[in-house]
Amino acid sequence: SILTVTSLMGVLLSLSFLFIFLFLRRLVKNNIILLLGFSTMVIYLLDGSANPYPYFQYWPIRTIVPCLLLFLSSVYFKSKNKAVYYALFALSAVSILWNFDSGIMVFVSWILTLCYLEAFNLDKKIMIRNIVRHIIVGAVSIGLIFGGYSAYAFLRSGHLPDLSLFFEVLRWHG
Q1: CA 165 → CA 32, 56, 72, 162, distances in Å?
Q2: Are 20 and 70 in contact (CB under 8 A)?
Q3: Which of 82, 98, 131, 135 sits between 20 and 30 A of 2, alpha carbons compared?
Q4: CB of 65 within 8 A of CB of 98?
């Protein structure tokens, strides 16, 4: 029903804002600046005339995972927790299935961020080894997530999903 879809999109939008707030709270120590900055962002995004994404089909569906990635990456970079590291790879791989156009950007951004930070390592052998490791972990994550999804789809329907459709261009037939 319209109420159910609107409620679900409202929850996703609220979670997006919560993840942004939690991300900012980890970075901004002054509470007044934090609240002013977050309030300004919320007002800008929710203002009808300034909102570049006034439709539910774009804002919460395509932004919930990037907002969650922002928050979780701030958790990882402060703690260097391996569980969070692997969870971020799994999340970014799942985000490709969730919404391909924003998901691929989430996945690539996560890997590029890790590779960029490795570039500051003075020992070039360690730097290259770590960059290759990040790329391998990313490839394995995509393989596991897409393999698991394909196995689930096969068990449910008896057919493997056609993953080539991710690259199909939507055409207007008006």
Answers
A1: 48, 23, 30, 6
A2: yes
A3: 98
A4: yes
Radius of gyration, alpha carbons of the chain: 19
Q: Which of 21, 140, 142 is nearest to 70 (CA)?
A: 21
**Whole-angstrom Cα distance, residue 19 to residue 71?**
6
The single-letter code of the amino acid at 158 is G
**What amino acid occupies position 45?**
L
Report if pTM > 0.85: no
The whole-angstrom separation of Cα 126 and Cα 144 is 26
At which residue do the structure tokens 């037939």 appear?
173
Q: Which of 118, 109, 97, 30 is nearest to 70 (CA)?
A: 109
Which amino acid, one-letter code, is at 75? V
Let me know: does 85 contact 76? Beta carbons within 8 Å: yes
d(CA 32, CA 15): 22
Is residue 76 within 8 Å of residue 24, measured between CB atoms?
A: no
